[in-house]
Prior knowledge:
Largest sheet: 5 strands, antiparallel
Shape: globular
Amino acid sequence: MIILNFIIQAIKIIILLGILVIIHEFGHFAVAKFFKMPVREFAIGFGKKLWTKKIGETNYSIRIFPLGGFVDLGDDDREGKFENAPLYQKNLVLVAGSFVNFTFALIVAFIVLACQGNFVTNVVDYVKEDTVASQYILPGDEIYSINDKKISSKNQIDTIMYNNRGENIELEVVRNGQIYSFDITPYKEEYLSTGFSVDENNSITMLQSGESNNLKLGDVIVKVGDIDISNTDMLVTELKKYVDEAITIQVLRDGVLQTAVINVSKVDKYLIGLGFLPAETTFTSTMYYAGIGTVDFLYETLKGLGQLITGKAQNAELMGIVGVSDMITKTSSALEYLAIMASVSLSLAIVNMLPLPLLDGGKIVIYTVEKYRKKQFTDNFINIASTLTFALLIGLTIYVTVKDIIRIV
């Protein structure tokens, strides 16, 4: 059983990373073909060839190791067809890989969000009594902006509140066609964090990435420790006894009792005491809010990578292949798997455009500088720059891998 589970998890990793690398290389391949550049080989996988077929000048092959693939443009030196192509053609070939990953990420993110549904608007449904917001906000108000950021959905409000960490906010609302502005200080509430959510029958309805603990959607929690659980209030009461501890629970799955170990912790949430109206379940509404969510996904990813590169990241963690693989293996649904695929694809697209030799972004810089200085860099310079970049990437890989292992263990 352990071996079978290992094989399944390995296949999940191979499929995800393989797809992302293959579509990246296909981007290079398609644009090179468009400009009639010779493509010696388009390969899926690495290592020994399992199958090959030549069509025109190009060999199409499947190789034994299925992690990605490559495109051989047939340039054995800097005098080849690709090297002598116009600058815009070379740069378009190089940028095409990241463009495909970028587009793929946004399409997958949109699909995931549309399938998840359950969108919530920015229109206030109720205001919690005895809060600062109750002095200013009325049901029916539409949240227009928070700290000058335009608001279109509750999810955007949640993201701002999480990042704001209790600091005073400037809230603008639309009421009867007029915009009103208020300064509001969020209040803090403590919540239990277990890595899952349940409905009124203690049936698990949501599992966070990396927190499955062998649980599955639909499992019904029937015991915490030695205590039988009959309702949600009992579940919360018992879990509160084990904050910052690991506790064994029993769940009913397809009529069979299963045992799992979970970790319980407290999480601070900063709130303003507002509830919001759910969005309509029409096709138009779903497309609208999925579109908003996709734009937010792009913005937050760019923001997070920017903070990591500039050293300004506070809550973000740099994650390498080990950390990503751990997240992939712990996915509990197809949508969760696709969400991680979208995130990795977008990150791959952006990182690959960094102006470092060995990366496509670095090659674009080199070709562009050569064009306008009317002189090629020497092979020795290219080799040294590539070696230094390789050493930097290896060092960074070792660093994040060690951090990933420490975090996982």
